[in-house]
Amino acid sequence: MIDTSEAESVASATSDQADAHEIFARFTNVQKSYDGVELVVKDFNLDIRKGEFVTLLGPSGSGKTTCLMMMAGFETPTHGEILLKGEPISGLPPHKRGIGMVFQNYALFPHMTVAENLAFPLEVRHLSKAQTKEKVARALAMVRLEEFGDRRPAQLSGGQQQRVALARALVFEPELVLMDEPLGALDKNLREEMQYEIKRIHASLGVTMIYVTHDQTEALTMSDRIAVFNDGVVQQLASPDELYERPENAFVAYFIGENNRLLGEVSERVGDDCKVRLDSGDTVIAKPVAVGGVGSRTTLSLRPERVSILHGDAAEQFDNQFTATVQEVIYLGDHLRTRLSVCGNDEFILKTPNAQGFGVMRPGQQIQVGWSSADCRALDA
After folding, report:
1. Nearest Cα residue to 304 out of 342, 356, 265, 264
2. Which one-letter DSSP state was computed for residue 273?
3. Which of 134, 138, 150, 361 has the least CB density, counted as fewest CB within 10 Å?
């Protein structure tokens, strides 16, 4: 007979084993320096589950691509450890890691046909001609290029070349695929099309993907989780909706999506809220997220779509209400983007849907706007 404490211990061990089994790739206390002085990556820790789509997002020079290159084997960590399926891989050369890789410049062999490009990773793995032919056909069908096997890369559009590069990374059926800014060279429409294509392929194959980009839309569209980088440090790791709705600091708030910024200092803490006296003299009620005590400086973060134009009884639901002056109205098809002057900020943005009931505003017009304190986050200064 097992007593309660022993049962709990067994259950805990079983849970830990399940969690460990679920982790497919792991960065532990990873650092990288090229000159022995300045760290490009600082104490990077990340667990990636099998079948997960994780994006490393950040501006140029933030360290995200260096992390990807260390996983691929093209760079070596200065400190820390990288595990793949529980095994350290720092001593393994890139070609023995079994990882698919997609680059921005496609890296296709120009003298080979599409089919020959796809066959190359299979031939170096010594697959038979019959197996190679079957896998190439399957990969072409996966990216919807069945009729393009005999063409050379120069005969394809940019989007088609990127599909071939993706197919080549997947043709030998790797468990992990790394993508480094793969859509950066495409125009807007092709880029959006390929985002959904990559997401579709990921969902159908269940392969683990690590994706690097500086484009927030790509990250939000495709990812299960996003690691936001800045200055070699992960600022926040979360799902797309968590990052957008609940940023933990000012950098994440302004890197992910559009934000209205209001600067001031905490004047009072009231229950779960705080009052912030803005530099304009106005007082805003906000949700304290990353602020100190009374008197500390803060930056308020407020999404443009969370601001409402006040009409009649609707005003009662907002604990922040102000008079605003319309500066500019831009028609964007499905919504209107209105620039306001409010609370001392002449670049305050309001987004309203292009629907019945929303009249056209004119520059110079005064309107009443409001927002909930729950949507207004008090972050670091």
Report:
1. 342
2. E
3. 150
CB 163 within 8 A of CB 181: no
- DSSP structural state of residue 92: S
How many Å apart are CA 158 and CA 186, to the nearest integer?
6
Q: Which residues contact 380 (CB under 8 A, 6 or more apart)?
A: 249, 250, 290, 291, 298, 299
Name the pairing type of β-strands 79-84 and 273-278.
unpaired
pLDDT tens digits, 207-241: 999 999 999 999 999 999 999 999 999 999 999 99
Residue 302's beta-bridge partner residues?
Answer: 260, 376
Neighbours of 268 (CB within 10 A): 12
Is the separation of the CB atoms in 274 and 378 below 8 Å?
Answer: yes
Helices (H) and strands (E) in the chain, counts: 9, 20
Instruction: Give the tens place of pLDDT for each residue, 42-66.
Output: 999 999 999 999 999 999 889 999 9
